């Protein structure tokens, strides 16, 4: 198998086939090769489906690129907005509009 597999959830290349499904050790996401439509559903770090207006919590300290701002673990974010990319959500934190990856959020 010479193709490089990319995780549909976190977009990392550290993916392996365990005999029955593809596994990403970075975000613990498992999928078979036929599940193309499942990648269009936004999921949080625990696998729960995200919808517009949901309230989520940040599970890890995140540095904001281009800023000295740090989003602390446990920060609650209200009223998220889904984007065209199922791996990202748009939200407001401290008055700033920020795009966060869904793998760092939990419902």
From TrEMBL:
It comes from the Bacteria. Residues 44-107 form the Protein YjdM C-terminal domain. Pfam families: YjdM. This is Alkylphosphonate utilization protein. It comes from Apibacter muscae.
């Amino acid at each position: 198998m010479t193709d490089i597999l990319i995780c549909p959830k976190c977009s990392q290349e550290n993916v392996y086939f365990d005999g029955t499904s593809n596994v990403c050790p970075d975000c613990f996401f498992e999928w078979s090769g036929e599940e193309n439509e499942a990648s269009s559903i936004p999921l949080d770090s625990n696998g729960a489906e995200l919808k517009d207006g949901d309230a989520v919590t940040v599970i890890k300290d995140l540095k904001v690129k281009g800023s000295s701002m740090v989003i602390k673990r446990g920060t609650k974010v209200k009223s998220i907005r889904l984007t065209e990319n199922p791996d990202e959500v748009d939200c407001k934190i401290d008055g700033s509009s920020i795009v966060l990856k869904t793998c760092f959020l939990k419902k």
